[in-house]
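Re: weekly structure request thread

Next one in the queue (364 aa):
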Amino acid sequence: MTAMESKAQRATLRYLLLFLCWISVSLGTHGATVFLRRPEASGVLTHRTRRANSLFEELKLPDLERECLEEKCSYEEAQEIFTVPENLNDFWKSYAEEDACKCSPCQNGATCLDHVNSYTCICPSGFEGKDCGTADQSSLSCLYNNGGCEHFCNEGPGSLLQCSCAPSYYLAEDNSTCVPAVPFPCGRVVGSFNPRIVKGDVCPKGECPWQAMLEHNGLYICGGIILDTRWVLTAAHCVWRTRATDLRVTLGEHIRLLDEGTEQVKKVAQFFVHPSYNLSSADGDLALLRLDSAMVPGPFALPACLPPRDFAGARWRRCGAPRNTWFLTGVVSWGKGCAQSGFYGIYTRVSSYLPWIHATVTGV
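Done, posted below.
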């Protein structure tokens, strides 16, 4: 006896049983009221939801759409529909297996082909690997993943890639990693912080250790960036027409009105305004402050790194830092408030003034 015949017989028996039950109920309710009032009857009809697995569904012969498409079917239910084993296996593989490409495993614009319990990525030109996440070495350049370099990537003759590091770091034996050469190197936050300020949010203590506070005659006027133990970079308009003796710089500051024991207060011995500074247009809005004594680097006061010119100007456009080292690319010139949403902030591009910065710092 086939599965189809067996199910048909079971359906016939159920139908007979239901019919007998209906006769019994009808006879047992003789003389009773079986009608509902009109509002109640309408309510029953209105709220009734038609379902695929209705009362007499088991009386119907197996159907693919009803059993496996409208609802989730089991392997046994699929067996009743597909009597040929080959057809059953083909259907169940495509029905039970999830699309392996659904989570987009292929990278860099690759095409994903779904297989049973696996997938294949068709990589675009220049990429390879199972997920197309590895650049072909023959097409590798500094534009892709910074050439694998932690800090700086330079393309030499014959497209040969060379990695280099910022001051206070040295290149490791793998020729790509930069290792700190001092306890507190530039641009490296001590701890697992994320030192980025968005919409003027307060930078938590220790997350912006290169930040300096500039005061004029005891009043806060501007911020600054520590470049090394003796130099701080700020905007020219902050010190325009002032005297160095009236200025004071606080390093390691977090809450201005609270002494937290991490502050280092320094007098300004000298300051240098960029020669092209224009008060009206704000062009060249940079100034260098030379401290009267060297600061002591630590977790709450250390310099930001200065990048090479091509790094800051064109090649590296991601906001933040290459692999946990932070570089100075701009200094706030003017704007409304601090990074307020809906308002522009104007920054002086530091890369354009690197020759002047290096010449001033090394020439004094």
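The first strand starts at residue 111 and ends at 115. The domain at 211-363 is CATH 2.40.10.10 (Thrombin, subunit H).
Next request, please.
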